Amino acid sequence: MKSLASLLFCGLVASLAITTAQEPPTRPRELDAPIVLGPDDKPAYPAPPEGYNKPNDKGPRGKLEMIEYDSKVVGTKRKMQVYTPPGYTADQKYPVLYLLHGIGGDETEWQRFVNVDALIDNLIHDKKAEPMIVVMPNGRAQKDDRPVGNVFAAAPAFAVFERDLLDDVIPAIDSRYSTRADREHRALAGLSMGGGQTLNFGLTHLDTFAWIGAFSAAPNTKPPAELVPDPAKATKELKLLMITCGNKDGLINFSQGMHAYLKQHKVPHVWHVDGHGHDATHWGHALREFAQRIFR
Questions:
Q1: Which domains does the chain have, with CATH numbers?
Q2: Which residues contact 124 (CB under 8 A, 6 or more apart)?
Q3: Among 10, 173, 191, 277, whose CB has the most other CB atoms within 10 angstroms?
Q4: What is the mean pLDDT of each run of 10 residues along the chain (296 residues)?
Q5: Cα 104 off chain centre by
Q6: Phi and psi dihedrals of 213, rounded to 5?
Q7: For residues 40 and 258, what is the distance between their CA atoms, to the nearest angstrom?
Q8: Distances in Å between the alpha carbon of 289 and those of 151, 249, 284?
Q9: Which residues contact 220 (CB under 8 A, 6 or more apart)?
Q10: DSSP assignment of the chain, as one string?
């Protein structure tokens, strides 16, 4: 059996290629495996309009800030980027979306790839999304959490982040911001490595998250039967489970396997396959759709 680090190297080169201009020294054979599409592998929603994630003059903008928090799990101060919606006030309680990045990224990746602040601002202005706080933490739970050198060597730290997220990140956000601190008002989503983390952490902590979105989930995703051992319980407790992938993405088999298991066990979910690859365009479109569906 391959090690976790080996599996991640085999599956996550596409994510790293977006963040660096250099090609990896070798191309894993798994990325060149044939992509087999089935009748369910089709779009569940249309592509967004042009400019969906560009700033406009519709109204006031939200605020984007970088904050620090004490991580007892890691034993150091760590950073995360936080978006608060237009008109944010401590007199109102807000739901929170936690967004997780890929193996080659950090707490800035979602913003760099997708312009999260403008995307959410535009949805709120158009009354297509609830005003929400969006938290973009660093999913690499180790003291040197910068994505430099051999980023695949840090694979175990992405598993450690489960405790950092639950024990340090969420309490820090709930103490610093005016949040609605319950599962019905807490969502978790991520791209690539972060998509795998989302399924691994979200589906096994339904007491913490009711809304889950995995975009282009990577090989760190645990087997479906391990993540959803009790389909009836998952059906009852999930407000939304959304899984997406591009039909040119060499990692699609992981998402297909999750969809097949959920369909077999009649667990409601959104399964979306579009014409993109393992890329920021797919992730931006997925985030826009997910943001419209949560907290409603």
A1: 4-293 (3.40.50.1820)
A2: 62, 85, 86, 130, 131
A3: 191
A4: 37 38 39 84 97 92 98 97 98 98 97 98 97 97 88 89 98 98 98 98 98 97 98 98 97 97 98 98 98 97
A5: 14
A6: -135, 120
A7: 12
A8: 30, 19, 9
A9: 4, 7, 8, 155, 158, 159, 193, 196, 197, 200
A10: ---HHHHHHHH-HHHHHHH-SSPPSS--GGGGSPP---TT-S-SSPPPPTTTTS--SSS---EEEEEEEEETTTTEEEEEEEEE-TT--TTS-B-EEEEE--TT--TTHHHHHH-HHHHHHHHHHTTSS---EEEEE----SSS----S-GGGGHHHHHHHHHHIIIIIHHHHHHHS-B--SGGGEEEEEETHHHHHIIIIITT-TTT-SEEEEES--TTPPPHHHH-S-HHHHHHH-SEEEEEEETT-TTHHHHHHHHHHHHHTT---EEEEES--SSHHHHHHHHHHHHHHTT-
Which position has the token pair 């399964």?
271
Position of tokens 């739901």? 95
